[in-house]
Amino acid sequence: MTMNPELLFIDIDGTLFDHAKDAIPESAKEAILSAKSKGHKIFLSTGRPYADIDKEILDFPLDGMIVSCGAVVYVENKPIYCKTYPQDELITLVQFMLDNDIGFSLDGIHKNYLSKEAFICLSSLMFKNNEDSELSRAMMAKNNCFPFEDMKEEDLKAVVKISIFTKNKESCEKLFQRIPESLVGFMYKNNHLDLYNGEISIKGITKATGLKQITSYLNIPIEDTIAIGDSLNDLDILKVAGLSICMGNGADECKKIADFTTKDISDDGLAYALKHFNLAD
Questions:
Q1: Which helix (H) or strand (E) holds 174?
Q2: What CA–CA distance (Å, rounded) separates 227 from 233?
Q3: Does the structure show a pLDDT above 60 at 137?
Q4: CA nearest to 275, candidates 249, 245, 250
Q5: This prediction's pTM
Q6: Distance (Å, rounded) from C-alpha 67 to C-alpha 71?
Q7: Which residues pair with 72 in a beta bridge?
Q8: How far, CA to CA in Å, does 167 sit from each of 125, 137, 190, 196?
Q9: What is the DSSP string of 195-237?
Q10: Residues 265, 133: contact at Cβ < 8 Å?
Q11: Distance CA 13, CA 133 (A)
Q12: Residues 113-127: pLDDT tens digits?
């Protein structure tokens, strides 16, 4: 690995933030600051909407971020890309979810709106043990959401992703059968909780979209990028980055396509990876 300045794209949940300890490992903080001091650029790459990113994370010396799985992209504090939901499809899906008691969050550019069903569903799980990082994030961040009933027309136009939280499997399956070709979604059963959750996003928009937008904006070759992640929504960015790193606690699918698998997040995996490639001291 050369010492040319690199663009580092770092996932949050399960990569930077350890939900088992409800904290960012000190080793990760130190490694990121070290990489920054060596001239590398630091970007977040997350499925979280901007409104769900903790102040502690935003206080890092960031050069930008990919949020909502690529639907919104920032360089410094400037938005350079935003892809919002097609309104007809959004309204149709929302009405179906309301009619069938499917809990959902509408993730917007600046605000998130949580349905009553989702709030009840998540509240009932707040104190139960959970090992799924994305679901944990949603559970802890729910207090940053606004009630769906408070949404205005302009808020609907700012929606970039739908998150699903429900115990109603049959209705959820019917919902996913109705997803139009312009959208793509997934759902899964949490192994530890009686809950189904997933996402419905705009087809073709992934974290890789964000990486390409940033490299184009900065006129930097993709070969000078490094992506670090752990979950299925990291697959696309791991495939396109110049160097791809999967956490030891990551999904098997990510490990198969990554150039390097580091240690678990609980074993200082992020810091280990940055030091392994001489990106941090």
A1: helix 169-177
A2: 12
A3: no
A4: 245
A5: 0.85
A6: 7
A7: 67, 82
A8: 12, 18, 10, 6
A9: -EEEEEEETT-SHHHHHHHHHHHHT--GGGEEEEE-SGGGHHH
A10: no
A11: 6
A12: 999 888 877 666 554
* CA–CA dist 26, 181 (Å, integer): 43
Average pLDDT over residues 184-200: 76
94 in helix, strand or coil? helix
Kind and range of the H or E run holding 244: strand 243-246
CA distance 68 to 161: 7
Nearest Cα residue to 195 out of 93, 102, 94: 102
**CA–CA separation, 103 and 243 (whole Å):** 38
Q: Domain 87-202 belongs to what topology?
A: 3.30.1240
Return the closest-CA partner of residue 245 out of 254, 253, 236, 266.
Answer: 254
DSSP assignment of 53-109: S-HHHHTS--SEEEEGGGTEEEETTEEEEE-PPPHHHHHHHHHHHHHTT--EEEEES
For residues 215 and 222, the answer to whether their CB atoms sit within 8 Å is yes
The type of residue at 243 is: L
Nearest to 221 by CA among 241, 237, 206: 241
Residue with tokens 């995996």: 269
* Domain boundary assignment for the chain: 7-82+207-276, 87-202
Q: Per CATH, which fold does 7-82+207-276 belong to?
A: Rossmann fold (3.40.50)
Dump pLDDT digits (tens) for 32-72: 999 999 999 999 999 888 988 989 999 999 999 999 999 99
Distance, CA of 66 to CA of 8 (rounded, Å) = 12
Tokens of 173: 């399956």
Give pLDDT tens digits for 86-115.
Answer: 999 999 999 999 999 999 999 998 888 999
**CA-to-CA distance for 115 and 147, rounded, in angstroms?**
6
